[in-house]
Design a protein that fits this description.
The chain has 4 helices and 11 strands; from the N terminus they run E-E-H-E-E-E-E-H-E-E-E-H-E-E-H. This is NUDIX hydrolase.
Length: about 200
Amino acid sequence: MKELLTIYNKNLEEIGIKTRDEVHKKGLRHKVVHCWIIERLKEELLIYLQQRSYRKSDFAGLYDISCAGHIDAGEEVENSMIRELEEELGLHVNKNDLKYIGRKFETYEMKNFSDDEICEMYILEVDKSTIFNLGEEVENMVKLPFSQYKKWVNGELKILEATSIKDNKKVKIYDENICPHIKEYNRQLFEECKII
């Protein structure tokens, strides 16, 4: 069954439903959900990044936002975020666990792929007892100090040093291994986490 998405005009009014393939082929405006996962320790804040599966058609194997996905036609935004967290990371959450941090508009072009997204953004706070069960769309999940991540965003670091949640091994992440769009989200993220 083909994935169906609601499409929107410039005024964010619903104007129809199209398949995901059509949406990306024609660059039609649609909604997605994004979730940043954080963990608060006594001495520091950690942020989680997802490594996309090598089988993905776009940004394969690159590190990205903790969890993201399309909102299906007729689906409520929060329900979509809950579904994506379960499908991708095996996390069972409810609406009260999610903190809405705002909306971001994103457009980008790639070969045979055009994106015009309305991104509804959330933060989910976890703790060390949280168990992730990675789905087939996710290669790995890593965590790293937020202070280090902020330095990378500000151009002060070129390499991130993270820890894999799969085997607790250290992972070096270079600029070219990170989805190019995620830096744009960080102003709202930093504000919500009271980092700036």
